[in-house]
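lol ok so funny story. i was supposed to be doing the assay writeup but got distracted and ended up predicting the structure for this chain instead. priorities right. anyway since i did it might as well share w the group, maybe its usefull for someone
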Amino acid sequence: MKKFISAISAAALVFTAMPASMPAASNYNNSSDFIFCDTFEGGTDSWTGRGSASVESTNAQKFAGSSSLYVSGRAETWNGAIKELGSSFTPGTEYSFSVNILPSDAKRKTTYHLTLQYNDASGEANYTKIASAEVMGNTWFQLSNESYMIPSDASDACIYVETENGTYDFYIDDAIAAPKGTVISGAGSGCRLIPGDANCDGKVNIHDVVTARKALAGTISGSYSVNNCDVDGDTVITEDDLKNIHAYVMGKITEFPYVGPPEPPPSDFDYNANLQYKAAPDKYINEACPQAGKIVSETYNSINGSKKLNVYLPYGYDESKKYNIFYIMHGGGENENTIFYDKDAKLGNILDHMIMNGELEPMIVVTPTFNGGNCSAQNFYNEFRQNVVPFVESKYSTYAEDTSEEGIRASRMHRAYGGFSMGAVSTWAVMENCLDIVGYFMPLSGDHWSGNSAQDKANSLAKAIDRSGLSQREYFILAATGTDDIAYPNISPQIDAMKPMTQYYTYTSDFSKGNFYFLTAPALTHWWGYVRHYVYDALPYFFHE
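and the output, tada:
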């Protein structure tokens, strides 16, 4: 049975970019009336990071002028950019506020808020929304309110930009405050998402048929909405869309037939829905492979000082090709050399044989370390995000087109992270804090150290998934341990707490149908000599979805 959507019922907002000639706020005719006018041309203009966020003036993007404020490192939705209002603002008085925002993620629907933070007469913190908008796309839009009253009992007032969902980076520009009623020019609200309203004038009529026809032919000029032209929701503009818009205008239909986006092609990988432990062949460990990869030791500068890591390059590594990448972390008391050089691990030799025999696609494998500086297994994710991934993937050929935040996020389904023991603790922490840049996770013989109970641990991961806005088809977990492993009594209850959370997980090792599985090896203990076989079993299941 077909679904239908009304041409006038959609409530989401998308925005179109303003012309490049839009003047900077400092050039506006009424700029002398502004209480502040922050254009970020010479710095951060007293804006700072809220929570874990950091801010910096950048010329990478701009709404006007030559610079904007880049907001990054957001671990929570309330993290963002904040500015103290100071003595220029009087409680009980109305003001006009405006800020222009550029989201960094074009694929996610996100609600942005310009929020007032203040303490009331009792000293309690309060938070009220000055302006909000739900957006989708990476074009500039404006949050503004011409008549917002600061509460009469407010003290220590600040304004900040945050999101309702997602922790993506964003840019702000031309942040302005002025007396009540001041109309502040900006990016505006652009084009509402109204199916059929191709020319963004708020109506669906014969002019939209003409605009949609030009969009289909690729001869369009001026402002139009791809989303509004795509009335059947299949993500592309087709002849069917044009026919449906014309039929709607002529009164032949009152709703557009909804087709929806095409299903992704099914993976051709032969998954086992109930994967069982199987040791790698003895020769994979004890015999040299005639097609051996290369292990390169690298030194890089990090937030925790100078650090080392190892990079496994598969046999025949070719810089002109793109490779999936797997970061795997050692356990407590070990280092970056353990996984490739310790006699109980010898993972490089196993990888060589698997790739030579077609059991594993050629990939890059990296062994970093959480040793050094103020780093630990639980907070390594900061160094991983800020230093390790940009360093490695700027030097070696992965699916990251570049190592900007956007480039790393766009390639997340070609990036995996795993680890043994304390490395598994690190893995769960990476999932909680770096879900936006990693698609596959392999925690081995270790649980999540967040909260006291198994349910606490499961809940903290669920909150991270909620923040990310990702669907079940965009993250995959294959955990493993032995039943006599010292970590089993901790990881097993956590897994049991996660299984019923079906809004986040579908439990099966057939990743064409689910995204979460726990491999247990009967009677095996806490030892790399066993754990290497878990990698042998699990790694071939990665990177197919």
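The two ends are 28 Å apart (CA to CA). Confidence is low (pLDDT under 50) at residues 1-30.
back to the writeup now i swear
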